[in-house]
């Protein structure tokens, strides 16, 4: 639903993807919401897409991503987050 809600609006898709990356970092042990902690956790996870989206998000969306890429990122990572939340012991 998140990727569909902003279809055609690259700015909002990038903002949404940045927030999904931040949530992914928090769920995976980021110490706080501080950008340094989020970046550190994303680097540790090795999720290059999340890292590039979040880095660009912090830099006023300095990198351009196409709509398909952002929508797929949001959908795939949200599915991963939901699975983690449903089975916290396996994560």
What's the structural blueprint in terms of helices and strands?
Layout: H1 2-5, H2 10-27, H3 35-45, H4 48-58, H5 67-86
In short:
By secondary structure, the chain is an all-alpha fold.
Explain this structure to me?
The chain is mostly helical and 91 residues long. It is built from five helices and no strands. α2 crosses α4, α2 packs parallel to α5 and α3 (35-45) packs antiparallel against α4 (48-58). The protein is globular and about 35 Å long. The model has no long low-confidence stretch (mean pLDDT 88).
List keywords for this structure.
mainly alpha; 70% helix; 91 residues
Oligomer: single chain
What is the count of DSSP helices, taking H or I runs of 4+ residues?
5
Mean pLDDT: 88
Estimate the global geometry from the Cα principal axes. Answer: globular
